[in-house]
Sequence to fold (484 residues):
Amino acid sequence: MPDVAVSPDAYPVTARNRVKRLHERGRYDRAAVHAILDAAMVCHIAYVIDGQPYCTPTAFWREGDHLYWHGSSASRMLRAQKEGLPVCLTVTHLDSLVLARSGFNHSVDYRSAMCFGTARVVEDVAAKARALDAMIDRFYPGRAAELRPSTEQELKATTVIAMEIEEASGKVRAKGIGDDEADYALPIHATRFPVTQVIGTGEPCPRMPAGVPVPPGLAGFTPGRRLDEIMLESHRTTFGEG
Amino acid sequence: MPDVAVSPDAYPVTARNRVKRLHERGRYDRAAVHAILDAAMVCHIAYVIDGQPYCTPTAFWREGDHLYWHGSSASRMLRAQKEGLPVCLTVTHLDSLVLARSGFNHSVDYRSAMCFGTARVVEDVAAKARALDAMIDRFYPGRAAELRPSTEQELKATTVIAMEIEEASGKVRAKGIGDDEADYALPIHATRFPVTQVIGTGEPCPRMPAGVPVPPGLAGFTPGRRLDEIMLESHRTTFGEG
Fold:
């Protein structure tokens, strides 16, 4: 139950998702949270089995207010989620190292999003096949239609999990150095190192037949480009701005 | 209780940390797990409060078989961990995007490590101060001694958490494209994009007095260099190979 007024464009704010520490960094509007999620390929998912927490990295994607991920039907995580498991899915982008004049003011700039909900298996075979195509297209626009179609066996071996975002929060630090006023005059080297995740030059499979063109959906995958920008662009190409 | 024979250089393998899916990717020896941990600045920590899992990103570091992280004494996560909380701390490095000829064989190359243990607050003030200096030095060798010393108030406002690694596993995929044999002849573009996290050119604080030199501990922080390599190097400079 939300405990503050909710705008239709914001996630409800409750005890679970309220950003408590440095709350001025908190973001609850859908656009801000989605921009953090859609710029990522990999998330970390926290879930509990028999009282033991696990933190599993996995590729994921968003469609509207649902998050999806997939994996082997044999995996521990996905089997546990079959029954409808509470999870927290978190995405983090590290944007810079902040070297201040005191240990206390050392920091990093970052963008992160935490999403809460109940993970459920997508049982319907057609819905599962559609979701897996959406996953490929979300990362690589138009690619699902270019691939060798999935076999029945492959679909059977794959589990797709869907989670409606019940609550979410984003947290952003982008201020660089913030030292105590009295410390600025000290003869201490203070600096900020930007951090980016970038792709390198594509390495085409040497076993490709001659003359297979690079598909248009990969036009944005140019060497040195930021992965978060590519991922956000791919998401918007495939799903639009929604 | 370990359920397989344990070498002194390996973490015990139990139901909790055994790599079940694609078990040939699993690594349990300390050197392999530590190399994944020590190449990272940020981890994700799963923990449970009142049955609800949370997944929180944070900077962390390793000394021997202990992991440490810190935060505000007011944070929800750190207050819950005061009582000795089971956690799973996970580190993930994304190394490449693997675009195969079928959706099923799409993948990523990665290195990840999951560590299990019980998080406890470092209560002793001297131990806490020492840990916070170690944190700075672990990322930026020699830097703690160059900084304005921490105040009593800053130490009070900061909580340090320690966790002995009870069990851990690494998981590594580094094979690039692995298509079904029959699919290699298909006229489908298959490629691998390397992914790296790199630092950019340092942005010195404009408020530094003239003539403050770049400290020798930052000599490895050169533009375009991989952050995982810098972090591993910093760790070894500060703590040695152990």
In short: Helices of chain A lie at 30-38, 76-81, 125-139, 152-157, 227-239. The longest strand of chain A covers residues 85-99. The mean pLDDT of chain A is 92. Strands of chain A lie at 26-27, 42-49, 52-63, 66-72, 85-99, 107-121, 158-164, 167-173, 191-199, 203-204.
